[in-house]
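hey all, quick one before standup. I had two proteins in the batch that finished overnight and I want to keep them in one place so we stop losing track of which output belongs to which input. First protein below, input sequence then structure tokens straight from the run.
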Amino acid sequence: MVAPSGPVEPGRLAAGCAALRATGLNVTVAKHVPDSVNLDDSAPRRAGWQGLAGTDANRAADLTDAWCDPGVRAVVCARGGYGATRLLDLLDWDVLAAAGPKPLHGSSDVTALHVAFGNRLGVTTSFGPMVAGLLGADDPDAASTASFRAALFGGPPVPVTGSAALRPGRAEGPLTGGTLSMLTALLGTPYAPPPAAGRVVFLEDVTEAPYRIDRMLVQLLQSGWFDGVAGIALGSWDGCGDPAELAAVFTARLGPLGVPLLAGVPAGHGPRQHTLELGAPVRIDADALTLVPLPGGAR
């Protein structure tokens, strides 16, 4: 278990590790997960300041060590927050590629790692609840926990049911995307998400006002990222304002793409966090309100 972004609250960390062990996993906590520093990498962290779970160098080292350790079967992130993009220039991608694939699991700020690992290493990655987040909550959602366990241990594909079709239709393609603000933050960098042509895009975010969501969608559209997209699945938008206003924004910005547009997929930052395998093939059926994994996604 690594912490590539924000500092981890000890109680939630302990509860999350206990939840992982309850699923039958042996948990090793990376060396610097308990650390907490300021944004300039100085310690000790000052009260009220935004923090990181250790210096950039130490967080990058923890991630590299875990990925390259043959005794580690999966790398699971403790939480999101901020800081994952700062690691991308510090990772030796040749070393990581030589270590071979394994599951990388996390969400939110970890979207930066999903995009970079998928693009540079050619691996699928796992977007879902994190150790010090929902998994470490007092009463975690049972379906979310089961989906997380199935993603790590394998099993038959589990369809995900959305709540509304903002545009009808069916399509298939590899799943891509993640947290909207992170995808836009990567544009114009060497780690920018590859174009979504031929892919099914998953998008979600948290505590972003509708006008900011609109602006980020416009940025992606103007960059050409959505050109040729096969379909779009919208996850949770916890704390993002009036759901009716959001639906209007999504319909206005994404509807003209002319592809299936499914809303209400229980994945992201909400109380239900289904695990999705980014890079793996899926079928989106907005008429049936489903997002279904297809064979070929298992590592």
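OK second protein, same deal, sequence then tokens:
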Amino acid sequence: MAEEDNFDTGAMFEDPEGFYEPEPEPTFAEHHMLSGQKVRVRLVGSHPLYGNLLWNAGRTSSHYIEERASTLIEGKDVLEIGAAAGVPSIVSAILGARTSVMTDYPDLDLVGNMRYNASLAAPQIANPGSLHVDGYKWGNPVEPLLAYLPAGATGFDVLIMADVVYSHREHPNLIKTMRETMKRTKEAVALVIFTPYEPWLLPKTEKFFPLAEESGFKVTKVFEKLMDEVLFENDPGDERLRRTVFGYEIRWADEELN
């Protein structure tokens, strides 16, 4: 190339300063356990998979398992699906779970933030090595999750599924993951807890439960809890529904255990 053909583009292809909005900084939130302990977690600054919020269903799940810790959590193996900040997983580890596995979509920011929260909570956990973090896409092979179980264990005693059934197209994958990770015992349970943040879609969300029944489970609705405030103040739709947390216990149908 001739010397005169060389030219300096300068900053022609660089974005001008301030062209993009700066990424929001991570924030912190606290979950207050019924025991008086506080679980502090970092939230992703902004994330399309909602790692930037501490959801009502996560808080409510944590209180639910704390109230039943002696029979539900202590010495048990727990798997959280769609953990976000991971409060229920951390609370389970604090309450004496033998194994607590915190999972969410295998995104670097989300998984990295979960690892940070696990390390932040370590001083509160009698056995910090009981708490594990991994990325997991619903419906994928579950062998990496089962590998966290102690030798001889055949599945998880408790699955925590807080605010995951809003993703209607993922219902079959969630059911598949439940079937492949939940221990086949009468006592094993999946806790499905959610708020209809888009109330007009509640009928589609509730289709998860008959699908679970068709797939070998029995479903029991265990509570409706009205929160003091909505999580998203300016959202449309029935405010009472947007403040309500619904709780279900899903266990193996009897014929699946015979």
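Flagging for whoever picks this up: The beta strands are 27-32, 38-43, 77-80, 99-104, 131-135, 158-162, 189-194, 217-226, 244-252. Residues 74 and 96 are 5 Å apart (CA to CA).
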